[in-house]
Amino acid sequence: METYSVLYSSSHRTALLAGFQRLRSDGRMCDVVLVAGGASFPCHRALLAGSSEYFWALFGENTAESSAATVSLPALTPEGVEAILDFLYSGWLSISPSALPVILEAARYLQVLPAVSICERFIIDGLCARNCCCYANLAERHALLDALTAANQTIAMEMGTLLQESREGLLELNVECLMAVLDAEEIPGVKEAELIKLALDWLEENGPIPLLRSNLLLSHLRFGLVAASDLTDLSHSHPAMATPLIRSQLTRALEYHRLGSAQPIRQSKQSSLRAWPHRVLLVGGGSSTEQPEQQVLAFDIRNRKFSSLASGVPRRLRNHCVCSLGGFLFVIGGEEVKEGDEDGVKSVTTVTSNQVWRYDPRFERWEQVASMLERRSQFTCCVADQVIYATGGRHTQAEAKSHTSLSSVEFYDTATGAWRRGAPMPRPLYGHASAELGDGIYVSGGLPGNRGSNQGDDAAERRESSREVLFWDVKGRVWEKRAPMSIARFGHRLATANGHMYALLGMYEPFCDIERYDSQSDHWTRLRPLLVGSFGYGLASAPSGNLLLFGGRRWSEGREVTVKSVLEYDTSKDLWREICQLPRALTGAECTMLPLPD
Known about the structure:
This protein has 598 residues and is an alpha+beta fold. Among the domains are: 191-258; 283-340 and 348-594, Neuraminidase (6 Propeller), CATH 2.120.10.80. The chain contains 15 helices and 36 strands. Strands 6-5-4-36 form a 4-stranded antiparallel sheet, with no helix packed on it. Strands 8-9-12-13 form a 4-stranded antiparallel sheet, with no helix packed on it. It is elongated and about 105 Å long. It starts with 9 loop residues before the first helix and ends with a strand.
């Protein structure tokens, strides 16, 4: 049997269209004339029918137009028809922002779907603050779902600029787009009160609209982000705010403000910030351990930029702990550094603290909440099952110039706003690390202390740090032993990522090894070490599963040096790299993740 080949010419289609374009330009063999807005366009019936579902149906065997010499298109403009015909005859679509509406109208009407797709891509690629509202209306009218989503996202991200420079465009926005924008999780630099005013202005400009629609629109607002003092006035600001549904939402927002300590565990969409949730806060720390600062730095993982909170920590602290719960920042315990000036002589004193401060980023407000039952520094805190646990540590007795280590554990009951005692650790411990994984909290390393000793635990300084790992079963409320680390560590860090726990460098370790713990096999694995040892750094686990290490101290030419580097550990590739630098050298900062308004 004879074989044969099938070969394809990519140039044939181009040549075919070029041939039809020449015939059209010369007016030869045209068998139908399209008329739009008084303009006539001689065309070839076969090419139109082969390129458009509309023309395929129009020129069917049983239609009057199948043999008509002229076809009228009264719904379209000459500019739109000409652009689409040029596209059908050449494959090229010439678009400008001003011509886009009529071209898209013609493409949609004539069912030339490739041209519709090109118009949609033109919208998506050209979105900016200047045109996003107009493009959103256009995309909604023609059901361009991808362009509509992109336009709504652009409006949300550019809302601050639009409110100042293009409020008219916002007021002309269709209601579906406005609802989608008000449902956005991130609207940078805009207070919720401004969004409420925009929604009410839109209702005033476009009303009256059915009650169901206005209720649906206003229900996308987050009244819990408005100060309690302003909520009462809102109910009288517009008739749409007086409906039973909206009044109930205002009432729930007022109830949220009255929750006090229980706010972190009673969060809802109504009280959640419209902000990127993965900012790393670096709380406290300074150029040296003796000079902690009150400033709080925020690190944006996306653009690797740092900014400062408008208000810093109310106290100068070191060896403190931080954690986040329900969108609130908690700063717990530590050593408060106080400067004095008596008779012209400056002095610095440190006092171990049991104070707890809570920061609400919704209103940029610090508030002192219930203090811990014991004063603690060099301890750990961890959040498990929406409960804050503080474990171990030590406190300084200034008069006796001694330290007392703690085995005690306490947890913060947010429902009542009080600290309660938990089961103590098997022995006193400080300088340890902790992390939440699975159904409990892991505590590793540290130095054992002598609880109850009249001389404090100064002798513990001469002991070796521990390799031991303890596990607190939150449900069973018991302490259990787990496989020890391969290295004894003190002042180190634990972090969880991708279902594993990582132990990183502590103070004065002879090597730079890190290790990973698998809770299923109860086994530690040594990983790639850091090239240079470091301690006193801040540590955070990024949403990607990578670990971020901020600043710290290291040895250089026989002395301790505070550094500015920000390192990233890729947990999937077991690889370290420096990604940026801090605004200044920093050590002793404690880290946690928290959503923050821009």
